[in-house]
């Protein structure tokens, strides 16, 4: 018999959208249109119609340039923001419309790790206090000795000496602080970790250590990750699947190996081309020109058309749908679907 729980994705995001209303003064919102004064508030379209799935034990990396909506997706899934439209389902349960108390049981299962570990560490608490607090909250029946043992076990597993537990966050280096923030997330035995650029604020020499620590935790604790990063080398090392975002929309989703060996969307190709290499003799090198447009006035048609060498009239008027490719990847691009990338590149 099929096991429906094991078969369904742990996280399902369906047609998710988030708009932020711009903070404008009353006079700024008044516009003169067709002989009348009308009131128009402007919004940032941070996330537009995003659908993604994360299976149990996967690490889905979300990549894209600054401002493309990566952190907003993470914060929506964590319940820190309310979507403007769409649905988020966790383990078969719709979670985007839950009340604070409805969300409570999920706070233990879903933990978040931020770029800045100070965001999750209270500077006035010792490390032991900071790590014991979530254990006491989520396991109210645990004895003082059980709480202490749990914290010691987790500290050892992230490579922080438990004898340092009396110290305060400012007494640690950035890398150690991020290890402690990871420990804090792990103390409650979560299933799903949302990591928003967890290593980008660290020294390069420390980044690989923290990334490996997160990989070890994934294997030893059976964790699932939604991992936000702008760094493709991190994706290659960490991700089992990758979702490429551009201007709040998904361009391409693929297995990591497929995406790196056979990127299809022109934006994914350009992103991979932008990774510096010592000897750059890559064929079909695509340079990304210009800046990502403002998400206040989204272009009609494909979000990427203003920077795309393959854009034609259809791309300028009609937004492409994400379509499954023979190798299992999902690509939202008219040029890919019409099989005209290579023809244009050759011409
Ligand atoms: N609270 C907010 N109010 C208004 N606009 C916002 C808010 N949060 C995010 N935005 C805007 O939404 C868009 C997406 O932001 P987001 O932080 O999700 O992008 P990102 O891809 O994570 O960028 P970065 O890599 O620089 O963190 C940006 O244009 C950003 O300015």
Give the domain tally: 2
Determine the CATH topology of the largest domain.
Rossmann fold
- Ligand names: adenosine-5'-triphosphate
Question: Do you know the CATH architecture of the largest domain?
Answer: 3-Layer(aba) Sandwich
Average pLDDT metric: 89
Distance between the termini: 54 Å
CATH superfamily of the largest domain: P-loop containing nucleotide triphosphate hydrolases
Q: What is the helical fraction, as a range of percent?
A: 25-40%
* Structural classification: alpha/beta
Output the CATH class name of the largest domain.
Alpha Beta
Describe the structure.
This protein has 347 residues and is α/β, with parallel strands linked by helices. The strands form 3 sheets. An 8-stranded mixed β-sheet has the order 8-9-10-5-11-12-14-13, sandwiched between helices. Strand 9, helix 7 and strand 10 form a beta-alpha-beta unit. It has 2 domains: 236 residues, P-loop containing nucleotide triphosphate hydrolases (Rossmann fold, 3-Layer(aba) Sandwich), CATH 3.40.50; 85 residues, no CATH class. The mean pLDDT is 89. It is 33% helix and 22% strand. It is built from 13 helices and 14 strands. 39% of the residues are buried. The protein binds adenosine-5'-triphosphate. The site of adenosine-5'-triphosphate (ATP) has 13 residues, from strand 4 and helix 2.
């Amino acid at each position: 018999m099929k096991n429906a729980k094991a078969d369904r994705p742990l996280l399902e995001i369906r047609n998710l959208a988030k708009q932020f209303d711009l903070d404008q003064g009353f006079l700024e919102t008044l516009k003169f249109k067709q002989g009348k004064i009308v009131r128009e508030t402007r919004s940032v379209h941070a996330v537009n119609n995003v659908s993604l799935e994360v299976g149990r034990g996967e690490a889905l990396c979300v990549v894209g340039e600054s401002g493309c909506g990566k952190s907003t997706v993470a914060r929506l899934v964590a319940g820190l923001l309310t979507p403007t439209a769409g649905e988020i389902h966790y383990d078969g349960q719709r979670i985007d419309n839950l009340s604070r108390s409805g969300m409570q049981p999920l706070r233990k299962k879903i933990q978040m790790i931020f770029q800045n570990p100070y965001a999750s560490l209270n500077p006035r608490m010792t490390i032991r206090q900071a790590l014991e607090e979530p254990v006491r909250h989520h396991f109210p029946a645990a004895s003082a000795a059980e709480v202490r043992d749990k914290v010691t076990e987790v500290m050892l597993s992230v490579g922080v000496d438990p004898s340092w537990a009396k110290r305060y966050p400012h007494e640690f280096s950035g890398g150690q602080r991020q290890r402690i923030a990871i420990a804090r997330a792990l103390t409650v035995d979560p299933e799903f970790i949302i990591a928003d650029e967890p290593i980008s604020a660290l020294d390069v020499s420390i980044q690989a250590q923290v990334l490996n620590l997160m990989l070890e935790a994934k294997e030893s604790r059976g964790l699932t990750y939604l991992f936000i990063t702008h760094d493709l080398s991190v994706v290659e090392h960490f991700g089992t699947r990758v979702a490429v975002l551009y201007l709040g929309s998904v361009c391409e989703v693929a297995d990591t190996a497929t995406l790196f060996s056979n990127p299809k969307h022109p934006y994914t190709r350009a992103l991979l081309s932008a990774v510096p290499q010592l000897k750059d003799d890559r064929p079909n090198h695509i340079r990304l020109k210009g800046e990502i447009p403002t998400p206040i006035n989204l272009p009609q048609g494909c979000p990427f058309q203003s920077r795309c060498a393959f854009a034609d009239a259809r791309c300028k008027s009609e937004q492409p749908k994400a379509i499954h490719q023979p190798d299992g990847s999902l690509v939202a691009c008219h040029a890919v679907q019409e099989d005209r990338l290579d023809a244009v590149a050759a011409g």
